[in-house]
Structure prediction request, 407 residues.
Amino acid sequence: MSAPRKVVLAYSGGLDTSIILKWLQTEYGCEIVTFTADLGQGEELEPARRKAEMLGVAPENIHIEDLREEFVRDFVFPMFRANAVYEGQYLLGTSIARPLISKRLVEIAAASGAYAIAHGATGKGNDQVRFELAAYALNPDIRVIAPWREWDLTSRTKLLEFAESHQIPIAKDKRGEAPFSVDANLLHTSSEGKVLEDPAVEAPDYVYQRTTSPEDAPDQPEYIEIGFEGGDAVSVDGEKLSPAALLTRLNELGGKHGIGRLDLVEGRFVGMKSRGIYETPGGSILLEAHRGIEQITLDRGAAHLKDELMPRYAELIYNGFWFSPEREMLQALIDKSQEHVTGMVRVKLYKGLARTVGRWSDHSLYSEKHVTFEDDAGAYDQKDAEGFIKLNALRLKLLAKRDQTPK
Prediction:
């Protein structure tokens, strides 16, 4: 296969992607276009521009974009309408960011006349799958270059030697082995590897970057009210907020109260198990509140069907199938269920926990008249329950009679 003339690289400005940039230039002799996404990772991104220029990338080929609103509005919020949780606990913070990055890589490639994209995901992880499945779904003819699957820079020593031989600056804290690897965006922070690889050993306190330890969180609970419209959160304590601003506010509140910590050994799509430390403070509050408003606005049948489908939906996102027809089909069903998921939820934040303590809505299906322990003024005839029970018991009685008959 001939070398591409131009490659669009997902570029963070860090050491690894800087090495990849230079490796692509030397190995393929191609023109490099860099794409750096601001997904709310909390880092200054202009240094990435300066580093790319220093490595020979033309200024017009450097793309740095603030995608926080699109990320939350078009990816995080649709996922939270489904209450998506992978393997019972993980809120998919890394998984949901990858399709957006791939989408922009493919779009920039088309706009710049490039026929190839490149990423820095390793050959052991899930991200390579997510990046590439999304890219191929959007452009079946795109070429994907994954240096970690091609090069012989198989150790930290070799990476540093390559960097030094090509005058790539190495920060002092990068010369030793990093104690763990971090991925961050507006939804979560993920920490994996090195000091965290033994799942029998508790993660050190310094791993947690976004949340106060629940033991050190305020001794007094804090109550907040989250407003929903059509399944999406739109306000906090009466203040209307954009999607990204709302998640930022919930992150601040959740981090303060030590909410959203998770120590998980998960089953990767590629087959192995891995241990990760996740912090999803705002997302944990949002999930609790969304379930709270659904409790009074979703019909039982719709709610139970959603819960049955949720693990499949979550697995599709985890495995990289955001742009698949089956995810889009499930999304249409989920979005239909959210038409009346509108109202307010009061959530109590305290010592690592977010708990719904109140919910109300003009679309509520909750009827106090029907469930009251007092006189319901004829709203519910308790005698009706007898026939209901007998009809539902009929098959059970027939089964019991058959099984009791002597053989």
Summary: The radius of gyration is 25 Å.
